[in-house]
Amino acid sequence: MWRSRRRSHWVLALVLCLLWGTAWIGTRPLADPDEGRYAEISRVMVISQDWLTPQLDGRDHLSKPPITYWITALGMLGLGFDAWGARIGVGLTFGLWLFVVLRIGAVRGASRLDLFCIAVVHGTSLLPFIGGNLLTTDPFLSSAMGAASLFAVAAMVDASKRQWTIRGFWLASAVAFLIKGPPALLLVPALLICWRARLDPAAGERILLRPVVVVAACVAASWYLIMVVQEPERWKIFLLEEVVGRVSSSAMRRNAPFWLPALTLALGTLPWGLVALFGARSWSLPSGGRRGSETDGASQMDRRAVSTLFLGAWLITSLLVFTLSTSRMYLYVLPVSSVLSLWIGEGISSWIRGRRGRQGFCALLALSAIAACLALRIAGEDLPGYRSSEPLARQIQALSGANGAPVVFVGIASAPGLDFALQERLPRVAIGKSDRAHAHDFDRASLIDLVRGRGKVLGVGTMPDLRRVAGFLEVEIRPAVEGTALRAAWLLPPTGKASGFAPSQASSIAR
After folding, report:
1. What is the phi-psi region of residue 354: left when phi exceeds 0, alpha when psi lies from -120 to 50, beta otherwise?
2. Residue 299 to residue 450: CA distance in whole angstroms
3. pLDDT-based confidence at 498, cuts 50/70/90?
4. Are the C-beta atoms of 374 and 184 separated by less than 8 Å?
5. What average pLDDT does this structure show over 373-402?
6. Alpha-carbon distance 421 to 389, whole Å?
7. Do 469 and 330 share a domain, yes or no?
8. Could you please report the per-residue DSSP string of 3-28?
9. 97 occurs within a structural domain
10. pTM metric for this prediction
11. Is residue 61 scored above 70 in pLDDT?
12. Within this chain, do residues 365 and 492 fall inside the same structural domain, yes or no?
């Protein structure tokens, strides 16, 4: 009876987590450049039915394995080629990640108040919420690594299920590797370092169980091997560009300051990190387990101490790797934000336990944080600096449809978000010798023929590229919207007169 009730509580928790992850997830238009890129690659997968080789702008795009694209494409097949279809997968994944963090807390011996605080902290903190709601590989990686860390914590504290949880750890790590590659391996050194500290160790227990490690390695390497077998030169992309290039060079142009990972984690805990910091002196650890709880067989103190050792090792390992690497972005540390959410949630629970005033303050803050998160989902596009292709796409469709004019993309700047919003890849025009090395549909001569034949062509591109076009075609660039990366302009025959469109039709797009 008690176990059945506990199971129903966890089913309810899962449903609530998934609802929080997907509520209004498709209201905000896709942001450029990242969300537009992942959505367009997934759309092309559906259209081409090539589910193995991601493609962008007419070329293979092998920087990431395909699991993120598969999940996103399935969402589009179910809900359509729009923001809802593109983001439903990441919304469900964020909900699953939140549920996994709760399960880690339960394995650590958390009370119901602890779990409630952990849920609120992880679900509304700055970094987990914003990063977990963006269509990139990082939310999917965070969920998979969260599952692997759950298995690792269970293996550290529960000897009765150790063999099964170790297998789960390796298989979840393999899935994480198929999501983003080498970053998924950061859990392995943490577990190896802390393995000797596991509770109730038995003779012959090994973390490197040969059969499951072999199976996990085959799963993790499967897509990479298929790609290399199809084209042997691809090993250079996977090893030299995506590993060596990111770690030791500035080729990826992501050379943020070395302190970015630590600062991102610290600021990403807001607003709850400040609450935890204020009440840190009042934190206390439980002294023992409860009858009928998930802490049978070991005291709560032991479980938290051992699991904290592993989680701390994972946090420190990740910070060291991303600090020393030359490629740094704030989303790189998203998976380990769950560690801070656990600790902060448990600390706040200890601080407010039995204190009505503190409970009222935290309840008010929680409601405010929930309201702020929903506002970001619903009206995030109104924030300063938010960039989306959808407004320009609507204007392009209206202008080209009303005039029957073809639309071309000028230059080599990538605009996957615009392609996704238009539901087609705009023909590319190579306007210089360096452009011809990239995928293109027209050169200067064929573009002139197109303009002379149709009389009017709508060109889209960056301001410098449109100015280059003006060197061999008579172009009126209007309107020139300040602060946008792409503009639209009519391309007219050299002897024709330019026809612009009204300033009221101005729209902006940024990649």
Report:
1. left
2. 77
3. very low
4. no
5. 85
6. 7
7. no
8. HHHHHHHHHHHHHHHHHHHHTTTTTS
9. yes
10. 0.90
11. yes
12. no
Pair 441, 346 in one domain = no
pLDDT at 34: 93
Q: Are residues 372 and 314 in the same domain?
A: yes
Which of 113, 112, 101 has its CA nearest to residue 142? 101
d(CA 77, CA 202): 49
Residues 443-487: pLDDT tens digits?
A: 777 877 888 787 778 888 887 887 777 776 666 565 544 446 777
Same-domain check for residues 374 and 406: no
Residues 313 and 399 in one domain: no
Q: Are 438 and 412 within 8 A, CB to CB?
A: yes
pLDDT tens across 326-353, in order? Answer: 888 899 999 999 999 999 999 999 999 8
Residue 43 lies in a domain: no
pLDDT in tens, 13-33: 999 999 999 999 999 999 988
Element (H, E) at 429: strand 428-429
Phi, psi of 509 (to 5 degrees): -150, 140
Same-domain check for residues 181 and 236: yes
The number of distinct structural domains making up the chain is 2
Domain that holds residue 422: 390-505
Same domain? 172 vs 272 = yes
Query: Could you tell me if residue 87 is left (phi over 0), alpha (psi between -120 and 50 degrees) or otherwise beta?
Result: alpha
Distances (CA, A) of 363 to 272, 282, 346, 366: 12, 18, 15, 5
Q: What does the pLDDT average to over 69-93?
A: 97
- The whole-number average pLDDT for the span 92-117 is 96
Residues 409 and 266: their CA atoms lie apart, in Å, by 42
Task: Specify the amino acid at residue 112.
Answer: R
Measured CA angle at 227 (ends 235, 170), to 5 deg: 85
Question: What are the structure tokens assigned to 475, written together?
Answer: 């172009």
Instruction: List CB contacts of 251: < 8 A, sequence separation 6 or more.
Output: 241, 245
Lowest-confidence region among 260-274, 292-306, 404-418: 292-306
